[in-house]
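#dry-run=false #mode=assembly
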Amino acid sequence: MAGCTATAPRVEMTASNHRWRKAKNVCMQTLAFMCAALVILPLLLVLFHLLSQGASSINWAFFTQLPKPVGEVGGGMANAIAGTFILISLASLLGVPVGVLGGIFLSEYTHRRLNRWIRFTADVVNGVPSITWGMVVYGLVVVPMKGFSTLAGALVLGLMMIPLIMRTTEEVLQLVPAGYREAALALGIAQWRMILQIVVRTAMKGVVTGVLLALARVAGETAPLLFTAFGNAYWTHRLTEPIAALPLQIFNYAISPYDDWHRQAWAGALILIFLVSAINLGVRALTRDRFSRTAPQILMPGHHVATEVQPPHGTAG
Amino acid sequence: MDNHFELGLDDLRQKLLLMASHTETAVNDSVQALMQRNHDLAVKVRADDDLIDRFEIEIDELAIQLLTKAPLASNLRLVTVAMKVSQNLERIGDESTKIAKRARDLSQEPPVKLSLDLPRLAGLALAMVKDALDAFVQRDSAAARALIPRDKEVDALNRDMHAALTQHMVAHPDAIARCLDWMVAAKSLERIADHAKNIAEEVVYLCEAQDIRHNLKRG
Amino acid sequence: MEPQADQRIALAVRGLSIYFGHHAVLKRVTIDIAARAVTAIIGPSGCGKSTFLRALNRMHELNPDARREGEIRLFGDDIYAREVEPVVVRRRVGMVFQKSNPFPTMSVAENVTVGLRLNGMRDKRLLAERTEAALRMAALWDEVKDRLQAPAVSLSGGQQQRLCIARALAVQPEVLLMDEPASALDPLATQKIEGLIVELKKKYTIVLVTHNMQQAARASDFTAFFYLGELVEFGPTTKMFTNPAQKRTEDYVTGRFG
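#status=ok
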C-alpha cells in the first residue's frame, strides 16, 4: 500500500474468518436455490403429467368434433373450446368497460371517502369464492329465465372480471406521473379529455395487461359455470341456451366412469393450460416490446432516453 | 458556502482598513519630512510606498474573486467601492512619495525665504484624509457629504501658494529650483485632498447607493 | 437601464389570499405584472411563490382543499368570475414546469400540437404551421425539423424543456408562467432557456419563479420578493439587487438567510 506511513496501522485486506463467511454464503445460496426449485417443481410436474396423459389424445378430431353420446368412443371438444371463447368474449363486453371506467373513476376523480369504500369493496369481492358468484347469478338470472343460458354464464364471468380489471386499471393509472396531468390541464385541455387521451393513453399497455390477465383468470373458472352456463353436448345457437365450456367439460368427463372420457379430460386440461399460457405470453410480448421506450418514461418523465437503449435482461415484463 | 463569502468580505474590509492606516501614516510622515526638513523620514516614506502598492493589488485580486461569487445589494456595493477606494489610497500614497522626494531634495538646500501657508494647506489635506477614512470606517454618510465642499478651500489655498511662489521666482531666479519643488509639493497636497474627496463620494455610494460624483445635481 | 416594458398591466392581482385547509399560504398579495416584460418571483422555500404562480392560471384549484380570496384580472378580465371556466383561463395563461414533461406516447410534432388538437383543431395545414412557428419561437426548430415524428422522449433534457415551451406557445397564450424552468438542466441548457426568455418577452408576458437570484438578475425586468406568504418588495430588478428598500429583501439577497 504505497503512501502509507510506517506508523499507520496495517489494515487487513482479508478477514480472518473469511473462509467461514464464504461457506455461509454458499450454504445460503444453495438453500435459496432449492426453495426456488421447490416452487418450479410442482409446475413442471403438472405440465409433464398433463403432456404425458393428454398429448396423445390431441388430434384433429378433438378440435372439430362434438362429444359422442355416452359409451361411444371418440369425438372431441369442439363445442367446449368454442364455448370458452364465446363466454370470455361476452364476459369482456361487461367486464372491460365497467372495470376500466371504474378504475378511471377511482384513480382520477378524488372523492376520498367514497373511493376508499369502493376500493375496499372491490378487494373483498375479489376474494369471494367463485362458486358464490355462480349461486348469485343462478338466483338472479337462471331462476327467472327458467333455464341455464350463455347469457348467465357470460354475466357471472363478467361480474368476476369487474373488480379485477378495476383494481389493475387504477393501479396502472396511478403510475402515470402527476406531471403529465398538470401539463395537459395547463394547456387548457378539459379534464375528461386529459384523462382519456393523455393518462389512459400513456398507461394503455398496463390497462391491456390487466384486461388480459383478468381474461386468463376467468377462462379457467369452473364452479360459477356449473350454475349458469351448465354445459351443452351440442352446438349452442341462441344466447338463451346453455353452452359448453372447457372447464365444465373437463369436470364432467373427469368424474365420469369412462376411460375414454378421462383421456379426453386430460386433453382438455392441456388445451386450457395452453390457452392461459398463450394469453400470459401475449402479455409479456406486449410489454417487453415497448419496455425500452415506454416504461422508463412512465417512471421518470423528462429523463433522456436514447433510442439505442437495450431493454434490461431478466426483469419482469 | 455563505460563510466563506462572509469571511472574504471581512478580509476585504480588514485589508482596506490596513491600507488606509498605512496611507494616513505616509501622508503624515511626508508632510512632517517636508516641514521639518527631515531627510531620513523622507527616505522612509518612499520605501514604505511599496507596501501600499501591494495592498492595492491584493485588494483588487480579492475583490475580483468575490465578484465571481456574484454578490448582490450592499455586498456588491462594498466590493466595487473597495476597488475604487484602494485605487484612491494608492494614488494618495504616490502623492506622498512625491512630497517625500521634494522634501528630500529641499532638505539638502538652504531654506527659501518666503512665508508660505503650507502648514495650513497640509493640515487641511491631512484632515480631509483622516475624516474620509473615518467616515468609511464608521459608514457615516453625513460626515462624508460634509467633507466634499472642503476641497474648494484646499484648491483656493493651492492657487494662492502657486501665485506667491511664481512671484518669488521672478524676483529671485536663484531660488527657482527650490520654488518649483515647493509648487510640486503643494500640488501633491491638493491632489491628496481630491482623492480624499473621491473616497468620501464612494462612502456616500456605499451607504446610500447614491452616486454624487462630478457635481451633477443629484442626491 | 430601466426595463422597456409595455405600459399595460397584464395581470392585476388585488388582495390575493390562498388557503390550503386552514393554512394561509398566500396573504393579501397585491401586485401588477407588466405586459411584455419578465417578472421574476424569488424567495426562500415555502414562501408561497409557486402557489402564487399557480393561482395566476387557476392551477392551485387542483388541490381540493384550496380556497381563494381576492381578485386577479387578466388584461381587465376577472379570471375568477363565476361564469369563467378554468379551461379558458389556462388557454390564455400557459405554464411550463420545473421537470420537463413531454407526453411519452407522442412524437415531437404531436406534443407541440396536443393543446390545439385536443381542443378541436383538425386542419392539418394549420397545425403544421403552428408547429413550425411554436418550435421556432422556442429556438428548437433547427434542431428537430428533421425528426418531427421521432418520439418526444428521445430529445435531450434541455431540448425536452424547450419542447414543453413550444407546446405551451402553440396554444398562443398571452402570458407564460414558468416554474423554475431551468433548475433541472445543465448550465449550457440553462443559458439557452434564459436567452429564450429574453427573446420571448418581446411577444409574451412572462412570470418566472426561480430560486436562483443570479438567474433573476440576468433574465428579468422586475422582481418580486415573497417571504412567508407575503409580498415583501416588488420593483425593477436592478434596484432590487443593488439597493433594495426592505431590510428583509436585503438580507435574503445577500444570503443572510434562506
